[in-house]
């Protein structure tokens, strides 16, 4: 049987943490996978050195996941096409705003029997609306794409603290293969027949986490945050089931649903930056670069992208939390209005 060869497209905070897991798993399951993994790095200079050189020399992503070794069967590569050459599995894990450019570069260069999985939390926004990222990848590259999303704050997983995740599959064989690629004793994988439900929960919880950070900035307390979590989950479910078909109710109770909303509302970057937004009155763009050292905020951009659809469809009253978060982030609405405008 031909072994699977894995290529990772992305090497940020999550990309680096999940690559550590895959690098151990491909060695453990050497009957199924080739030992070496190539990881595409968006090249940049760190301390006067190329980041790819630093990763390959120190076996550590010193910028995006400092302090955690990346096994030596991973090679960082700055050239996207070279990274995917010969790969039979593509793992997409770039911030959502960059995926289209990646797909454009890969178009026509990927064989149709390659399997892909997207770990990206976001939508692709265009004039015609919001497309799931898995659909964009699938349409550009003409391949099957699964999704993986869950309550997965990257540094906690790098510390090997117990957590769960969810894989959404269309083809059960792909779901089972990806489970072997990602699962460890401390990182438990559930698989469900709902690619889009899994990935869109991940996209929308980022917006709810922005709301939770605003609540923290306002010093509103845990009851208020719990209300944001509850209302947020309901708006997520309504939004996804209004605009996409075949979404399962059970998906919202998997790690990708309720669990990810909770962890992101307590420990995520969107929460952190939204709290600082309320306290400092600086813009999200300024705070992103001040606080995240190159990591990317996804929730504010997604809030803007989904608001275009809510507004176009005249659904502001159906999605008061999403609408109010957007208005506070972009329209100068006072953060105090968060709880006033959603009841
Ligand atoms: N960090 C986390 O705890 C988790 C993140 N995710 C999701 O994973 C996806 C990727 O996030 P992270 O790996 O955390 O990335 P990150 O937030 O650390 O983003 C920085 C990455 O973007 C790259 N980058 C910068 N400009 C670029 C460009 N023009 N083109 C391509 N790449 C560029 C950087 O080189 C770096 O690798 C996101 O959708 C995020 O929501 C999912 C679960 C956990
Ligand atoms: O997706 C995440 C946890 O599951 C990370 O969320 P943040 O991007 O808000 O850090």
TrEMBL record:
All copies of domain Glycerol-3-phosphate dehydrogenase NAD-dependent N-terminal, residue ranges: 6-172
Enzyme Commission number(s): 1.1.1.8
GO biological process, alphabetically ordered: carbohydrate metabolic process; glycerol-3-phosphate catabolic process
Key words of the record: NAD, Oxidoreductase
Example GO molecular function: NAD binding
Domain called Glycerol-3-phosphate dehydrogenase NAD-dependent C-terminal: residue spans: 194-339
Domain of life: Eukaryota
Location of the active site: 205 (proton acceptor)
List of residues binding substrate: 121, 269-270
NCBIfam families: glycerol3P_DH
Protein name, entry field: Glycerol-3-phosphate dehydrogenase [NAD(+)]
